[in-house]
Design a protein that fits this description.
alpha+beta, Outer membrane efflux proteins (OEP), transmembrane beta strand, signal, lipoprotein, 2 domains, four-stranded antiparallel sheet
């Protein structure tokens, strides 16, 4: 009968083991299909992502701002803490491969019933001539233990190793996340810095035009006194001057907000933002080569982060799959055990042993299957996120390359437009003085040159921002 029971147990265990050996479904780390070999209209193979921040940005004030931010920015500090969290989790999962050892000091008291196996056995034992007085078992039986107990799950199927691998990849992902925060922060500071230089230039243009328009207003007032102009002309020139003066205060507010944003990014309160370079004379970084698209997979921190997260989820899938298999746990112990405290440290009280247990899931298999399906779905989601990040990165590079090219061409055209409009203002003023042009033509010419000069300054800023975006989009901006 016992043989049949053991035979049935072996058969059941074999069925459960074979049922656990289902096909493992992992996710392949692969970029989107048909990824172009080169960027359109960009045959260069050098990659600006390899340039350190101090080599790409030549403005010492900007580099100093970036260095300050990398030490004090709240997002940077939080990213560093995420690395610490991932590192601690890696150590935690690694230690799960080792046996746990605990120092135990236990004390208990038990009253056996007179009509139980222990009660009858203890009574009979106390009457035995083979035991001495120290070995007599009291009616209320204390139990004292002082020693070490251990528990160790033997990693037969790699479940714990897979968890450690998942934690390791998430640690690497956290490092890439830190680099991504650094890249984004560098781009934010550079963008705001060039925005600030552009606003300084706009303010200079506005104030120059205020001076010109004020002079024109005085001339019209004099002409009115001489009967050569009307009050309507005076009011039109005055309205234009007030419009330009309003632009001055609007620009001053934008400068204040941009300075405050830079202070926020650098972790400061109210601090002056030092800069003395005019954006109109500042040179765009000479090396603006995007490299080849495949380099994005190595240089872009967000792509690397998505890749490591995908690998971590693959390890999670393996760990969950291994949970279907039987688990072997060993529980050894060694210490002193006695029912009398005076005998606890007697050499005869030394006790040791080991208990081994093999368990396999039966009724909770549906729970494991649901967890397995959820983890696979998360892995597929991570794959799509990885491919989306690669695709988005390629589009960002293309947009940045084209923005630099198009805004550079636009800047050349705007320069010619500003020159022509300045000539038009001079001609309009001369013709107005001799009565061959009316005041509206002068006002229109002055307004057009102001708008064109502001657009010229804004276009130069867009060229720099395009360069910053290209540097960020190819994976630069985190190397010191």
């Amino acid at each position: 009968m016992f043989k049949n029971k053991f035979k049935f147990s072996y058969i059941l265990f074999g069925i459960l083991f074979l049922a656990a050996c289902s096909n493992l479904k992992t996710v392949t780390v692969a970029p989107p299909e048909n990824m172009p070999a080169t960027y359109q209209n960009s045959p260069d193979t050098a990659n600006i992502a390899a340039l350190p921040i101090s080599s790409f940005f030549t403005d010492a004030y900007l580099v100093r701002l970036i260095d300050t931010a990398l030490k004090a920015n709240p997002d940077i500090r939080m990213a560093l803490q995420r690395i610490e969290i991932a590192n601690a989790n890696l150590k935690y999962t690694g230690l799960q491969l080792l046996p746990s050892v605990n120092l135990n000091a236990n004390a208990g008291l038990e009253k056996y019933g007179d009509y139980t196996m222990n009660g009858v056995g203890n009574y009979d034992t106390n009457l035995s001539p083979n035991i001495n007085g120290k070995q007599h078992i009291p009616n209320h039986t204390p139990d004292y233990f002082l020693g070490f107990r251990s528990s160790w799950e033997v990693d037969l199927w790699g479940k714990l190793r897979s968890r450690k691998k998942a934690a390791f990849n998430r640690f690497l992902a956290s490092q890439s996340g830190y680099k991504m925060v650094t890249t984004a922060l560098t781009a934010q500071i550079a963008t705001n810095y060039y925005q600030l230089l552009s606003l300084d230039n706009e303010l200079s243009i506005i104030r120059k035009n205020i001076a010109l328009q004020s002079n024109a207003l005085e001339i019209v007032k004099i002409q009115k006194l001489g009967g050569r102009a009307t009050e309507l002309a005076v009011q039109q020139f005055l309205a234009q001057l007030k419009r330009t003066q309003g632009l001055e205060y609007q620009t001053l507010q934008q400068i204040t907000e941009t300075e405050n944003q830079l202070n926020f990014l650098t972790g400061k309160f109210i601090q002056p933002i030092y800069r003395d370079t005019s954006i109109s004379t500042l040179k765009v970084p000479a090396v603006l080569k995007a490299g080849v698209p495949s380099q994005l997979l190595l240089n872009r921190p967000d792509i690397r982060e998505a890749e490591f997260e995908l690998k971590a989820l693959n390890a999670d899938i393996k760990a969950v799959h291994a949970a279907f298999f039987p688990a072997l746990t060993l529980s050894p112990y060694i210490g002193y055990n006695a029912f009398n405290t005076s005998l606890l440290f007697n050499s005869g009280s030394l006790a040791y042993g080991v208990l081994g247990g093999l368990t396999t899931p039966i009724f909770n298999r549906r729970l494991l299957k649901a967890d397995y399906a959820r983890t696979i779905a998360q892995g597929n989601e991570a794959l799509f996120n990885y491919q989306k990040t690669v695709l988005s990165s390629f589009q960002e590079v293309m947009n940045s390359l084209n923005s630099i090219q198009n805004y550079s061409q636009m800047y050349n055209q705007k320069q010619q437009e500003v020159q022509a409009l300045n000539n038009a203002v001079a001609v309009a003023n001369d013709l107005y003085l001799v009565g061959r042009a009316n005041y509206l033509e002068v006002i229109t010419a002055q307004r057009n040159v102001l708008d064109a000069e502001l657009e010229l300054a804004n276009t130069k800023k867009n060229i720099f921002i395009g360069a910053v975006n290209l540097y960020r989009s190819v994976g630069g901006g985190w190397k010191r």
